[in-house]
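To make the argument concrete, we let one protein speak, a sequence paired with a row of structure tokens, as a model reads it:
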Amino acid sequence: MTEKKTTNKSAISDSIIQNHMIWSMGAGFIPVPIADLLAVSAIQLDMIRQMCKVYDIDFKETEGKAIITALTGSSLARLGARAVKFIPGVGSILGGVTLAVLSGGSTYALGEVFKKHFETGGTFLDFDPGRLKKYYDEKFEKGKDFAAKIQKDKKKAEEQKEMNDSVTQLANLAKMKEDGVLTDEEFEVMKRKIINNS
């Protein structure tokens, strides 16, 4: 019974971590460097708050902020340093790693650290960031890979949707030409527009 309850809490935590990771990735696209860091921190704090409810732990906002800073300090510093190189509207930074991937990786790692700590009976009172920093760093690397895969899958889905939309538009044009609504010249002009925009 206790094992089933722990498994259920673990599954709920995984869902909370994944949702907040995706929200952090969205915040990574905010074109104002400081605003994106603040948004990611707020999302991470909310994730910890929700995980505290799952594990029946008293949430302490001040301690939560301090722990986030202690654990994510170097990764958020990397985010900030890369944010200087961030080109508004482009969405990527030098080295091919996006702010969204770094934000998502950091949130994933933080969630995994709290999950491990809470599942071993830990609370805010006995949380030792120094002891868990190595675990955070390991999970940060895994989280970046996970976030990059999510981003790649999303891009692929968007490209597939665009292609499907183009095919549908071309089929509609062909039907309009066949029905005599469009001349050959009009059909060719509109077809080129669709192909050039896809």
